[in-house]
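Annotated sample (chain length 270).
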Amino acid sequence: MSNSDRAIIAKLAKAAKSGLIPVSRAAQAMGGIFQRAAAMKLATLTRRGWLLRARRGLYFVLPIEAEPGRLLVAEDPWVLAREAFSPCYIGGWSAAEHWGLTEQLFRSTLVVTAAHIRERSTKLLGHEFRLFRVPRSRIAGSLVAVWRGAEQVLVSSVERTIVDCLRRPELCGGMRHLLQFMQEYRHGQGHQLPKLLAAGKEAASGAAWKRLGYLAEVLWPDESVFLEEARRHITTGNVRLEPAVRHHGKLVRRWRLWVNVPLEKSVNRS
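Output written by the structure step:
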């Protein structure tokens, strides 16, 4: 390695976040050069084996002690997600794991993003990601910045996690997991049903309110004030409790909801 390349690598490593650096930040680190010139230099350093291309426009600065040919894994998938898919936040099953709503370990990190993505599932630097694209306006509201080492990453709050999953049950792997999340939330020390309603007003769709009202009625039948508030947000049209299941099942007219999966074996009313 030439002295000039060594100096550039040192600058890139200093500017990187958990080893990750986008072209825009690399351009600044290299003295404010044009991004096109920075991209060409990064490509050259990648061919020489000093960087790894994580995805278009994002590079991983290899540690000096890295062994040639050895598969490297980025230290933290949440920080990698922030750098690769911004604007975004960690949500769904990954947020549920973080907040203790489930003990199940999911293989992939779930990312809610407004970035342009071509695939719903991808693997970067040894980590698997499941991606759900939303409008940029939804990367806001009840999100929490949590520390991951020296970096902060946005994650959906407990209540926003539940609301997101009510809106799109696939974010948590389906209704069985969502039931578990809601049970754990109700029995947890930090649960506040008014906060869940507030998150619903912030981010819920009509379908989410129908699922929330029905599931709350099944799980928390004594919460009459909560149920009445949920009822006020019911919209026209009928939706399926579990969108991934094609058949309709039984229609619960008061919630305008097709109950198309059994809940009895999963529900613990204690």
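Annotation: The chain has ten helices and twelve strands.
Annotation: Confidence is low (pLDDT under 50) at residues 67-71.
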